[in-house]
Amino acid sequence: MFGLRLRRFEDNTRKVKKKAQDATFRNLGHAGAAVRLTAKRSIRYRKRKKASPVGNPPFTHTKRLPRAIVYAVDKWKTTVVVGPSASLVGPAGLPHEHGGRFRGQRYRARPFMKPALRKNLKRLPRFWKSSVK
User: Which end of the chain offers a freer environment for a tag, N or C, measured as fewer CB atoms within 10 Å?
Assistant: First the structure.
């Protein structure tokens, strides 16, 4: 003989979806903070006004650029945006990252955000591992 016991089925899909959304929001914040910290640390301070080598992150003379790097998480779109805030440094971050004309001068690219993202790409999946419990 064998025994069979039936239990009542509970629909937990709403709870699981809510926990997954909360975990995604939390982990996007962690990912944004990691990229932000890497980008801030890549920008070195120099007293003399000398440009960094082309292709390397820019030097800072006033420490405003590293302080201006912020991140914001949008819970409903499930996205995170990381980069220099235009309200703190104006449009100066764009010519540093991509190169181009700024204030009448031509600037070569000295990216700091894209290398920070690339450096953290391997770490990002670990933020979501075992995050929904």
Answer: N
